[in-house]
Structures are given as structure tokens and as C-alpha cells.
Amino acid sequence: MSGVAKVLAMRGARVSGSDTKDSPIVGALRELGATVHIGHSAENLAADATSVVVSSAIRDDNLELVTARERGIPVVHRSDALAALMDGSRPIAVAGTHGKTTTTSMLAVSLRTLGLDPSYVIGGDLDAPGSSALHGDGEIFVAEADESDRSFHKYAPEVAIILNVELDHHANYASMDEIYESFETFVGRVRPGGALVISADHPGARELTARVGGRDGLRVLTYGEEAGADVRVLAIEPHGLTSEVTVRLAESLGAAELTFTVSVPGRHYALNAVAALTAGAALDVPAAELAPALASYTGVKRRLQLKGVAAGVQVIDSYAHHPTEIAADLEAIRGGAGEGRVLVVFQPHLFSRTQELGTEMGQALALADASVVLDIYPAREDPVPGVTSALIIDAAARHGADVTAEHDRNAVPELIAGMAKPGDLVLTMGAGDVTDLGPEILARLQSPEN
């Protein structure tokens, strides 16, 4: 939502809105001239408002939404607003169960490094250039395409990226068939003559490729370690918290072999960079120029973001909340821990996701040396009887994990300070407010009694 608001404000629109609490995001919007109210109230709706933009997280009984409908003000979903912002550009829409924010960010940063001045809307704040959104003067517009509520059906990209396809968002999808159908609809929205960039390695992506292959006017470009990939990964060499990646491009893309640096750790992030490289090549951005520019991407807040070091302990924040993401981030961060231990503070996100994937989350947490599991962060959901963090904790214990339940969030800094030793790495993990614990843990580690 903030990304759409930022681009609208940068284009000269008068923007106002509401949030539940003050934050750096709110401050950034105010700096752009937006009026932001804290708390939701019918009085917050401007008298001369011509449209109201909402996300799927806003309930129908929200006072501002009810007032807008009573006054006959058009209510526009966030995806429709973003689709309108992309009109007249050459859009790249980044989709997939995991990795959307990172891949979108890699494209935004590297294209800016090359001086192409893209517009972008990202679901996270970049380390550089330090914003979730920007209105640029270039012809390319890069945006995340969110499958969770099928809102990515609204976009008409010139290039669609699909990183992976897995079952998630259980409140909206009942089966993998529904997921595939939804992604097929998204692919069907690619502009005639446009391209689909899709993983050659991921089983779900391969299945989707088989379903959509052969469509008239669609160019399919695959990337990954599979021998037949159009952009084939020949090697991923980890170097601490960076990686060196070597790829070979097919003849249709120039038949070049390139080696470049990815400035964040982990194979999954290296593959995201290759997806970004392939998408750029699909828009005729020279791969030999884009590859080194990808090294200028240094991360997104909440995606393995170093929050600080205290008493010899690194504290890192991760947005991972799906089992695949949890496992990937833990494997990636293991290389940066050296001889130290990896300690996780995990906050499950959504009752529906925990109900369906709690066992797999627990199994993934077994990759850590020790974990503290908090209560479920409900976000937009109401509690589900019988669904608690115990589903994850029990599964983790069955897989040999050292796991502790902690119902009092305020007790976590003290608990972690008692566990952590110099050289250890602490990972706050989840899509909820667990991110706020990082500074509190650092402060407790720095206190004299530690």
C-alpha cells in the first residue's frame, strides 16, 4: 500500500491515508506530502477524496471503507491502482511463492545502477536506494505480483517472472490445482510478444511451464541449473555472506558465459539474481552490463538484514514464514555463522498457514542449533480452535530440534541473552512483529549485567 501511495504522491496526486501506528514508512509518506492519520476513523476520509484504495487486509467493516461507500466514492483495490500506474510503461511483474521482494529489488537496484531509471513498487524497503517505491523517468516498471489473493491477475506485464509455485495462502487456495490455475491466468495476462521467465529447477514451475508452453505470442525463457535452461547456472560459489555465480546464456540471448557477484548469502538469492538477469535480457538490457550491476544490490530490510552486533553476537532479521523460506534462510546463514551457533526466534504467521504447514515449519527449524517459538501472529485472521504454536514445537522436537516455547514476547531478549555466546548468530524470523525484537535483543546483550 505504501508503495502505491509513494508513486502516486511522486506523480503529483494528493494522497491521504491511515495506519495503525506511526513508523518510518509513515514518515517517508509524510515527507512526500501525504497526510497520514494514526488510527482508523470516518473523519480521516478527506471531504474531496475521489477514490479510496484498499488492500485485501482491510475488512469490510472498516469505518473509512464504510464511509467511502456511503458517500459513493469509488473503492479501488491496491492491485487495480498498481495496474493503472503501470499503464504506458514496459512492466516486469515478479511472481512466485517465495523470492518476489528480493528479485524485484535486485532488478530495481541494478537497472538504476545502469542509469535506466525504472519505476518500481516493492513489498519491502531496500537498503539502497532506501525506498519501497519510486517513480522513475525510464520506460521500465518493476513490481511484485502477489498471488495470495489472485490480485496479480490485474496486471498485463511485458515480462512475467515466476520463481516457484507451491501451495500457500490456504485461506484462498484449497489445492495445488487452484494454484496452477491462478498462475496460468497470470501468464495469460502477458502482453502479446512478451516473455515468461520461469525456473527450470523448481518442480511446480516446471509443471506450470508444461501447462502454458506453446501459447501463441509467448516467449518462454527458463533459468536454473537444469541442462536445458536458457540461462543455465554453471556454478554458485559461496564466499561468506556473498556468492559468485557463473551462467551460460543460450544462443537466443547471446551465447555468453558470465561470472558475477551476488552481495547477499544463499543459493536461493543467487538464483533470484539469475531470474533478474534473464528478465533484463528479455527486455534487451545487455546481460554483460546487467550482471555486474546486480552486485550493487545489498539487501532488503527483513531479508537476512543485519540489525547489529553486541557482545560478539550477530542479530539478523528474516521475513521467512513458509517452510521452504525458513529452510533456505537457515541454510544460507549457516555459512556466515562459522563456528558459532544459529539461534532462531520464530513467530508463526497466520492460523491458516500454521494449521496446514506447522509440521513442515517445525522440521525446517530443526536446521537451527536452538529455537524459541512465539505464539502465532494473527494478522488479519481470527483464531482457529486447536491451532497454536504447539503444532510447530512438537514437530520440531520430533525432528530432534532444541526448541523452547515462549508465550511472553517481552521475555525473549532476556532468554536469548542467556543463551547466546560470542560468535553465535541470532535470527529473528517471521512475517509479524518479531522484527521489533532485534533491537531489544541487542540492547539486552549490551547491558552491563550480560
**Helix run count:** 14
Largest sheet: 10 strands, mixed
Average of the residue pLDDT scores: 91
The order of strands across the largest sheet is 7-6-8-5-9-10-11-12-13-14
State the shape: globular
Radius of gyration: 22 Å
State the helicity in percent bands. Answer: 25-40%
List how many beta strands DSSP finds: 20
Structural classification = alpha/beta
- The amount of beta strand, in percent, is 15-25%
Which regions are unreliable across 5 or more consecutive residues at pLDDT < 50? none
Distance between the termini: 41 Å
Can you tell me about this structure?
By secondary structure, this protein is an alpha/beta fold. Helix content is 34%, strand content 22%. The strands form 4 sheets. Strands 7-6-8-5-9-10-11-12-13-14 form a 10-stranded mixed beta sheet, with helices on both faces. Strands 15-16-20-17-18-19 form a 6-stranded mixed beta sheet, with helices on both faces. A two-stranded parallel ribbon has the order 1-2. It is globular.
